[in-house]
C-alpha cells in the first residue's frame, strides 16, 4: 500500500470537508474511502476520492474548491458530477437531488431522476486517522457496489467491489447491524 499517497488523500479529504463546511455545503464520502472511514482503517490503495453533494450546493462548492487550488477536470456532464484535481490527486463529486416524493436520486445527466438506495445519502460519521467524515451508509455502499453492473450494463463487477462488499457485511454483522 502506498502510505504516502494515502496520507496525501487524507489531507485532501480533510480540506474538502473544511471547504464544504465553511461554505455550508453538505458532502459525504462514497466509494472506497467511505468504506475505510466506516471500518476505521485503510484497506487498499485508492485511485481517487469520491464524494456526494446536493445539486443545490454544487456551484458554491465548485467555486470554493477552485479558490482552494482545485483544478476542474473533464468528466461526466457537470449536472451529474464535478471532477477536480489537486497536487496530482483526483476527486469526484456526484450530485444528488430529490424527486417529487422526497427520495434521493441522480441529479442530472443520462440517469437523471434514477433513485439511489434508500439508505442514502448519509450515516453516522465515519472515523479514520483522527478525521471524522460523513459517509454513505454501509448498507447504501453495499447496494451501490452490488447494483452498479445492473444499473450500468457493460460495466463488469470489479474484484475490489466484491471484496468491499464482504468487508462491509462482515463489519455490519460483527456490530450486530443488518446489511442489505
Describe the structure.
With 180 residues, the protein is of the alpha+beta class. The protein has one domain: Beta Polymerase, domain 2 (2-Layer Sandwich). It is 40% helix and 21% strand. The protein has 5 helices and 8 strands, in the order H-E-H-E-H-E-E-E-E-E-E-H-H. Strands 1, 2, 3, 4, 5 and 6 form a 6-stranded mixed beta sheet that branches. Strands 7-8 form a two-stranded antiparallel sheet. A hairpin with a 2-residue loop joins strand 7 and strand 8. Helix 2 packs parallel to helix 5. It is globular, with a radius of gyration of 16 Å. The relative contact order is 0.16.
Q: What are the main properties of this structure?
A:
5 helices, 40% helix, alpha+beta, six-stranded mixed β-sheet, 180 residues, globular
Helix content: 40-55%
The number of domains is: 1
What is the mean predicted local confidence, pLDDT?
91
Report the β-strand fraction as a percent range.
15-25%
For the CA atoms, what is the radius of gyration? 16 Å
List the helices and strands and how they pair.
Layout: H1 3-22, E1 27-30, H2 31-39, E2 49-54, H3 55-67, E3 71-73, E4 81-86, E5 89-98, E6 104-106, E7 126-128, E8 131-133, H4 138-151, H5 159-174
Parallel strand pairs: 2-5
Antiparallel strand pairs: 1-2, 3-4, 4-5, 5-6, 7-8
The gist of it:
The protein is of the alpha+beta class.
Amino acid at each position: 500500500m502506498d502510505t504516502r499517497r494515502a496520507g496525501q488523500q487524507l489531507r485532501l479529504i480533510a480540506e474538502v470537508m473544511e471547504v464544504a463546511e465553511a461554505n455550508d455545503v453538505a458532502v459525504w464520502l462514497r466509494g472506497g474511502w467511505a468504506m475505510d472511514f466506516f471500518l476505521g482503517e485503510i484497506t487498499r490503495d485508492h485511485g481517487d476520492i469520491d464524494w456526494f453533494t446536493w445539486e443545490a450546493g454544487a456551484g458554491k462548492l465548485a467555486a470554493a474548491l477552485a479558490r482552494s487550488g482545485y483544478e476542474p477536470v473533464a468528466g461526466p456532464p457537470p449536472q451529474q458530477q464535478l471532477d477536480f484535481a489537486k497536487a496530482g490527486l483526483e476527486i469526484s463529486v456526484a450530485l444528488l437531488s430529490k424527486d417529487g416524493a422526497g427520495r434521493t436520486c441522480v441529479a442530472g445527466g443520462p440517469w437523471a431522476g434514477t433513485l439511489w438506495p434508500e439508505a442514502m445519502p448519509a450515516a453516522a460519521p465515519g472515523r479514520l486517522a483522527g478525521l471524522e467524515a460523513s459517509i454513505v451508509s454501509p448498507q447504501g455502499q453495499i447496494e451501490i457496489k452490488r447494483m452498479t453492473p445492473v444499473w450500468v450494463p457493460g460495466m463488469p463487477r470489479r474484484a475490489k467491489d466484491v471484496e468491499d462488499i464482504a468487508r462491509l457485511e462482515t463489519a455490519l454483522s460483527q456490530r450486530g447491524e443488518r446489511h442489505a
